[in-house]
Amino acid sequence: MAPTEEDAYEILTALEAEGALPLRFFGSLLQEGPPEEMVVRFEDFSRRYSSDLIRPESVKLFADGVPEAHTAFLLTPYVDIPGEDYGQPRIPKPDMIHQVTTYFAEGIPIHVHAVGGGSVRMTLDAVAEARRSTGNEEVRATIAHMDFVSVEDVPRFGELGVTAQTSIHFATLDPSYNFIGGFVGMQKMEDAYPIRSLMAAGANQSFGTDWPASVFLMTYEPLMAIEVAVTRRLPGKPDMPARNPGEAISVMDAITGITRNTAIQIGELERLGTLAEGKYADLVLLEQDLFVVAPETIHRVPVRMTMMGLSLIHISE
Fold first, then answer.
1. What is the 3-state composition of the chain as percent helix, strand, coil, each rounded to the nearest 5?
2. Which of 45, 99, 241, 274 could form a disulfide with 56 if both were Cys (CB 3.0 to 4.6 A apart)?
3. Mean pLDDT across 59-66
4. pLDDT above 90 for 308
5. How much is the pTM?
């Protein structure tokens, strides 16, 4: 049986006490029950489980599901279902506004799963209303996955201070492209994951893996994410067509998205995310320069050494 949230934090805390936790863990608490009760639960977990390596970071909400099950909430109807079926949000909009407003009033960040353009827009609307009603412009908000984002909503991420966390390794012409396109429409699939446009519009664009969940490419490896962000192709496949190459980004922007921008997302830029005096020495030393190697080989660059603070986590022979 899978551990509960409390079990998971207890396990991580025990590993840290033993000196056996080789990473920093910024977790969440799943939205269950009234938001007023979640505020108490979040504050309790924050008090019991915050340390140098562990911190409950946000409340996790699910605005919708996934297109394969027709549970992603879209802005246009599913193309394989007769009639006008857009899917349904998992949280009705009034409830979403109430939840986000309650968390913002207490300074608690949110992390929202939203795949369809309808759920992305609804979440942005909720953030806008919560910022207006609470006056809290600083509390952090993240929308995760955001496969389908309307052009009209792209500028709102920067305007509302919402991090766009994209599962970028999905942004290829893998076998799921035509499969999911049969549900949502092929143009929507081609326009998905508009990371270059989001960055250009001032969004804090970060990258997540959704591991171990995946559509086709299942990976937690940062170098694979960087390569796909740059090439919009499956790793190591330079001859395959790129998926919407106009949304490809530079190696520098990809590295920034997976380091500095992620630190901004979790509120840790003062100590993590960039190399600067006074910050933790969380470092990865690579065998080759990512700015020099062929983009389609980035995922194969060997890792020579990994450090966390002053601790040597890994070194190759």
1. 40, 15, 45
2. 45
3. 98
4. yes
5. 0.95
Residue 214 has pLDDT above 70, yes or no: no
CA distance 9 to 265: 21
pLDDT digits (tens, 9 = 90+) for 154-170: 999 999 999 999 999 99
* Residue 23, phi-psi category: left (phi > 0), alpha (psi -120 to 50), beta (remainder): beta
CB of 261 within 8 A of CB of 289? no
Angstrom distance (rounded) from CA 285 to CA 303: 6
CA quadruple 46, 48, 49, 50: dihedral sign: positive
> Widest CA span of the chain, in angstroms?
61
Locate the DSSP E strands across 146-251: 162-166, 204-207
Residue 74 is classified by DSSP as: -
